[in-house]
Specification:
- The protein is an alpha+beta fold and 142 residues long.
- It has one domain (2-16, 25-113).
- It contains two helices and four strands; from the N terminus they run E-E-E-E-H-H.
- The protein has a four-stranded antiparallel β-sheet.
- The protein is globular.
- The mean pLDDT is 87.
């Protein structure tokens, strides 16, 4: 299986609240959906997708795009999806991972422009007392 040519087609982003009306906690929900599958040629299928980062009452970022799936089973998976709106979990996982890898970095920049928190957790740096080291004489567990 090979995924190639991920293209973003549209970006819609909106901030609903004013900057000075920041709630204490914002829950960010991610969602990616396959909206259409179309066979291009034997062993090649075009998949349309939509990614959404929802900030509840604060805002939303929506990105639509497409990618090309190449594999011996591409046409079979496309037909199955059009009939049942389902596909094997392993393949669905790869599709949605590819969509997230393409869309989340884009959403980070858009969130910054709208003064929304980034849709990924940022690392926390803690200064102060060093963390205790593990016991050097204890058993090692693998």
């Amino acid at each position: 299986m090979k995924i190639k040519n991920i293209q973003l087609k549209s970006i819609e982003a909106r901030r609903y609240s004013k900057l000075n009306e920041r709630p204490q906690k914002i829950r960010i929900d991610h969602n990616s959906n396959i909206t259409n599958m179309q066979d291009e040629k034997k062993g090649e299928t075009i998949i349309d997708f939509q990614y959404t980062a929802s900030y509840g009452a604060v805002g939303v970022i929506k990105i639509e795009g497409s990618l090309i799936y190449i594999g011996e089973d591409a046409n079979k998976i496309s037909k199955e999806w059009r009939n049942t709106r389902k596909m094997p979990n392993q393949i669905a996982s790869q599709f949605h991972t590819a969509v997230m890898h393409a869309c989340v970095p884009e959403a980070v920049g858009i969130a910054k422009d709208l003064s929304l928190p980034p849709p990924i957790p940022l690392p926390q740096v803690k200064m102060g007392a060093p963390q205790p080291k593990p016991d050097q004489n204890g058993l090692e567990v693998a």
